[in-house]
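Cullin N-terminal domain-containing protein: structure tokens wanted.
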Amino acid sequence: MGSKPISFDEKWAEIYKVMMLKRIIEGLPDLTISSEEYMTVHTCVYDICTGSPPCDANIERLYNKYREVYEEYIASTVLPSLREKHGEFLLRELVKRRENHKVMTRWLSRLFHYLNPAYVKQRIVPTPHEVGGLSALGTRCMQS
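Answer:
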């Protein structure tokens, strides 16, 4: 009996649940990520990156989805929070956004670290940590 093939869409649906991390970072009440949810996501990323055999198309889709999460967060949350502020209020908001972004990058780059050997090194693309890094945030903010 063979194992059931990895369904990328099913795995991504589980992974995306943890993207509520953005909402937790923003301070929305009553949101938590249980250790079971965290491990489920970790396992889904592992399964996609190390499946037997690993499917390069799924790994590439996962990497692209990971990048999209950051782009969406910056476009829908970070930039709007900065646009209407000036002077001291802008500086305070920048500090808050920087701290939130560092937390998000730390959590997500740990969850997606299996992309490093499976995809990043082969394709010579930014690591998960670099995708969400502060230099990427600054670049995206300056482009808008």
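Residues 8-143 form a domain with the 5 helical Cullin repeat like fold (CATH 1.20.1310.10). The chain is about 75% helix and 0% strand.

Cheers.
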